Amino acid sequence: MVFAIDIGNSNIVAGCFDDGEILFTERISTNHTATDLEYAVNFMTILELHGIDAKKITGAVMSSVVPLLTATVKTAVYKITGQDALVVGPGVKTGLSIKIDNPAQLGSDLVVDAVAAINEYPLPVAIIDMGTATTISVVDRNKDYLGGMIMPGLKVSMESLAGGTSQLPKIGFDRPKRLIGTNTVDCMKSGFLYGNASCIDGMIDRIGEELGEMPTVVATGGLAPTVIPLCKHSITIDDSLLLKGLMLIYSKNN
Which one, out of 44, 56, 69, 211, has a CA that is 20 to 30 A from the CA of 29? Predict the structure, then answer.
């Protein structure tokens, strides 16, 4: 049984897999000031909630886009499992052919997403990851990672707008009753949710034009279930995409 963790700027995704099967997926908030002991307690609680004995874990794998937390979380994993986690990065086998200008700049989360998508979905594929930032990655029919787009995430945009104006409040992201809002909050909800959905639909059309064919589209990330159902394109939501990628990378390196 292997413990898998992806450290993002807003959330940490944790889960376990065994014999090619993902046993669970959970999310906790990323705490940039938490100690390894605090993370160890969080992870132990997650495992206990799913009836998993930490002593039965035989391996661990991690990806991280928060360098300051990587060592902290790795130590936390070691404290509860006794396993030295494999960290996705230079020198780790992924099987992904990266064609961007500087492959070292590609975030480990995007690498992991792409590895999973290549294995799970028809090519070409566009992978939307909706977290602190909304990213879109594009992989062609030859399994080459071509590049992608980075856009402000939903929460970042909302906090920026509310913080930069005098009369616009912070809002929740429940769907408004109609597209054309009749009060400030519903107008903001409509703008954020349908605006982001329309942006994604437009990006998919443009990606198809540049590739010369429409890609399969898969979405993941904490905000995907909020926005993707409002899109007009057919998009598969895969909340386990990161863990699937970590599972594949772990297998390639053990």
Answer: 56
